[in-house]
Amino acid sequence: MYAIHREWGRPFAVLLVALALAGCAIQKAAQSPRNVIILYADGTAATQFEFGRYTSEILRKEPYAVTDTVLKQGTIGLLTTHPYEAFATDSAATASAMSTGVKTTIGAIGVGPDGKPVRTAAQAAKVGGRQVGLITTSEIWDASPAAFSVHAKSRSESAAIVDQYLTLEPHVILGGGADFFLPKPRGRREDGKDVIAEFRAKGFTVARNAAEMRAAGSGRLLGLFSGGSLDHAIDRSGSDEPSLAEMTTAALKALAANSPQGFFLFVEDESTDTLGHRNDAAGLMRELWAFDDAVKVALEFQRRSPDTLVIVTGDHETGALSATYALKDLSSTSSRNRFYTANAQLEMLTRIRMSLDKASEALGKEPDAAVLDKLVAENFPGFTLDSDLRDGIVRQQVLERNFSYPTQNTLGRMVSRQTGIYWGTSGHSTEPVIVGAIGPGAERFKGYMDNTDFGRALQQMLERP
């Protein structure tokens, strides 16, 4: 310790303490963002982001913002994914943990393992005086946006989740799921309520397609672009649904104009998870590009508003994705019969014209062999459907106990055999997910964490005005 003259030591010491406290306060303020944007690729871990990066660079000749900007220039963390009662998880339990900071059970939304509500990220943001925005490519009442905002003992309580949105009043709500906003026969509600009309009565502009969303002002906005989930990016040609990047642009426009104390925006691409479940490499590739386009929108907003924290993450890994080397056929295990996934195989993905979901929909529940052959020839040019896979689709026989979608997973195996992009499951794996953060407060998400650590850090950040 430095010696302090006894005549002025006390006031000087007091001054030192005051300066130290002021320095801490300034540092804390500097690390507390005004705006927080979470870009959330459901079902995505580092494996998927590397797939997105490499294919974006090689095939569409564009940098990948997730890796090239957020992960390279920001901080990197890893999150565990297990729920309260198991090792493998579902989206409801993981999103709830990342929203509330409390570990919970599979299927639960914003409640603890005892079923009692715990504060969500959106509610913490409201405490801090922030506006809230929710975006998803799925139904807006689906597990992830619901868990980041409201409460339900089961993710299947769709109508109750929608009713809670009406009470919470996020400034922006964009996605699919109009069916549980409308009564039968126009929708699926059993209680006769028209919740779209109730939102409109509260001053929300309602948009039902991309043009209406773009024409909306900067006031409160409810955009419902489908009765169910939105189209995958690979199937969007000619669609009047907005892209994830377009929804993010519209939300930031509305929130920036109406959030004097800042905002919290949750942006989810749920299709990355669905396509992983289906083992759809071509669909996933294009969806990862669409997700990155939304990340670029957020980063451009941050460039103009540097008091914004951008977080990019997922909730769990889906599909146990692995690009590898593989045998060309089963005639020999010699290395001469081996190929490595390379640019030529990846280019084959660009020629696929539909998602595996669309293919399954076209084939129906009892696929006809001739129709199947025609569909593959027209929409999967360059691919050959081996006889064992063809028979499996016609018989609707799953590949193994950890595969659940007879048509999609089997067509996915066709793609695997000719590209070397394989899948270990049609479910979720236990791979830790990556979290990248850039902007004020990013350091709080660095290192190896439980997903509840993420939730607690997020809550503390959002509750401060």
TL;DR?
With 465 residues, the protein is an alpha/beta fold.
Structure explained in plain terms:
- It is a single chain.
- The protein has 465 residues and is of the alpha/beta class.
- It has two domains: 34-320 and 428-463, Alkaline Phosphatase, subunit A; 328-423, no CATH class.
- It contains 18 helices and 16 strands.
- The strands form four sheets. Strands 5-6-4-3-7-1-8-15-2-16 form a ten-stranded mixed beta sheet, sandwiched between helices. Strands 9-14 form a two-stranded antiparallel sheet.
- Helix 4 (91-100) crosses helix 18 (451-463), helix 11 runs antiparallel to helix 12 and helix 14 packs across helix 17 (406-419).
- The longest helix is centred in the middle third of the chain and has 24 residues, at 281-304.
- The chain is globular and about 65 Å long.
- The relative contact order is 0.18.
Which of globular, elongated, flat, extended, rod-shaped describes the shape? Answer: globular
Number of domains: 2
CATH class designation of the largest domain: Alpha Beta
What is the C-alpha radius of gyration, as a whole number of Å? 24 Å
CATH architectural label of the largest domain = 3-Layer(aba) Sandwich
**Largest sheet composition:** 10 strands, mixed
Work out the helicity level. 40-55%
Mean pLDDT: 94
Total number of helical segments? Answer: 18
Output the structural class: alpha/beta
CATH superfamily of the largest domain: Alkaline Phosphatase, subunit A
Percent of residues in β-strands:
15-25%
**Strand line-up across the major sheet:** 5-6-4-3-7-1-8-15-2-16
How far apart are the first and last residues' alpha carbons, in Å? 37 Å
Low-confidence stretches: 1-9, 11-30
The number of E-state strands comes to 16
CATH topology (level 3) name of the largest domain: Alkaline Phosphatase, subunit A
